[in-house]
Amino acid sequence: MAEHELNVGLIGYNFMGKAHSQAWRNAALYFDLAAKPTLKVVCGRSRDRVRDFADRWGWQEYETDWRRVIDRDDVDVVDIATPTALHHDIAIAAAQAGKHIFCEKPFARSVDEAARMLAAAAAAGVTHYVNHNYRRCPAVRLARRLIDDGKIGRLFHWRGAYLQSWIVDPEFPLTWQLQAESAGAGPQFDLNSHSVDLARYLVGDISTVTSMTARFIAQRPLPSATATAFQRGAQQRERGEVTVEDAALMLVQFENGALGSFEASRFALGRKNHHTFEIYGSRGALRFNLERMNELEYFCGDDSAEAQGFRTILATEPCHDYIAHWWPPGHTIGYEHEFTHAVVDFVDAAVHRTPIEPNFRDGLACMQVLEAGLRSARSGGHVAIATNTPISP
Ligand SMILES: NC(=O)c1ccc[n+]([C@@H]2O[C@H](COP(=O)([O-])OP(=O)(O)OC[C@H]3O[C@@H](n4cnc5c(N)ncnc54)[C@H](O)[C@@H]3O)[C@@H](O)[C@H]2O)c1
């Protein structure tokens, strides 16, 4: 049983708010933590809805202004699960108030915002984390272990794809994810941020980027217009401009000489959350598909030719990261477990004052690649990642 408590203030209570709430609740049930997370206060804009959410998920109190969460002396951790536009202001205010910060991805809307967030967190000396949860999938951890053990050899290729299809319908409304002001960019930030984070984790830093983007649907119904038009059965709905790309393709060179490709789309019909990577090296190869997240495919170049082929490893043995705390082998885990693993490592880092990754430095490095991709798509040329941008202040 943990001796201390860590009081959490969660801002945003929808998709990620739920994923985080279950993680803050479950972490201490399944893992031995140095401090027990207390679900202290949750914040959203609608009083009724945030109160219902607090009741349902066991948050002790609720607020409707995020600044009041940060002002509270009894909050140790600020968890940012809001649209991307708010990450910057909330993270900086939280850092200045001395709170540890658990922040959703994409980290920020720009490199400038990311650099300011890192500077504030570093100056305050708080624990800072960017939630690229896929790093905490046991099969992905196994991929890293095989690479570190030299089983893949010299790395030649990264091939990443993150394909979804949720906005193929032109009547899908103009939500915050489709507006540059609130999201920064489209799948280049939303989806490629996860892929770039994994590529940096598994292959290394990226030095040069070439990119292309496309916007397939220029205007969409305004969310409020959609609701009222449905109620009235109206044909004509007021529309607004989509100000982000719908798909982004990116080619990169890694500092270690490897070549990489990234595909990100919300228009890949048939693909729901198809997040895959392949890594090819001089001694072996790896393949991962999030929709089969308990498995890692491994090709061993040392196998005899007659028996060569990709083998599928079910990463559910107690020797695989985090698994000993869950179920017996073969009793698979799911999407939400990655969030619990993130909370477990975050609590450890906050209590013992040890670093956690990916942190705001990684968030900035990732944003440098993603923003370079957007610049390349505009200019049509290669963009070198500026090595003179300070990553650690
Ligand atoms: N880690 C992942 O895989 C993953 C998946 C989805 C989304 N995300 C990221 O998580 C963040 C939230 O995404 P989501 O899908 O949960 O969005 P969402 O639209 O489902 O929820 C956003 C929440 O923020 C709240 N909010 C908005 N403005 C607010 C304000 N001014 N004050 C307080 N609360 C406010 C909303 O009420 C809502 O509860 C985004 O940065 C997104 O990119 C990460």
Let me know the number of strands. 17
- Kindly report the average pLDDT value: 95
Q: Which descriptor suits the 3D outline?
A: globular
If you compute it from the alpha carbons, what radius of gyration comes out, rounded to the nearest whole angstrom? 21 Å
- Associated small molecules: nicotinamide-adenine-dinucleotide
User: What class would the helix/strand composition place it in?
Assistant: alpha/beta
Determine the N-to-C terminus distance. Answer: 37 Å
The fraction of residues assigned to DSSP E strands is 15-25%
Low confidence ranges: none
Helix count equals 12
Instruction: Outline the biggest β-sheet.
Output: 9 strands, mixed
Q: Which percent range fits the helix content?
A: 25-40%
Q: Name the helix and strand elements from N-terminus to C-terminus, one letter apiece.
A: EHEHEHEHEHEHEHHHEEHEEEEEEEHHE
Q: Name the strands of the widest sheet in spatial order.
A: 16-15-14-13-7-12-11-8-17
Descriptive account of the structure:
- By secondary structure, the protein is of the alpha/beta class.
- The chain is 34% helix and 24% strand.
- A nine-stranded mixed sheet has the order 16-15-14-13-7-12-11-8-17. A six-stranded parallel sheet has the order 3-2-1-4-5-6, sandwiched between helices.
- The protein is globular.
- The model has no long low-confidence stretch (mean pLDDT 95).
- The structure holds nicotinamide-adenine-dinucleotide.
In short:
The chain is α/β, with parallel strands linked by helices and 393 residues long. Helices cover 34% and strands 24% of the residues. The chain is globular, with a radius of gyration of 21 Å.
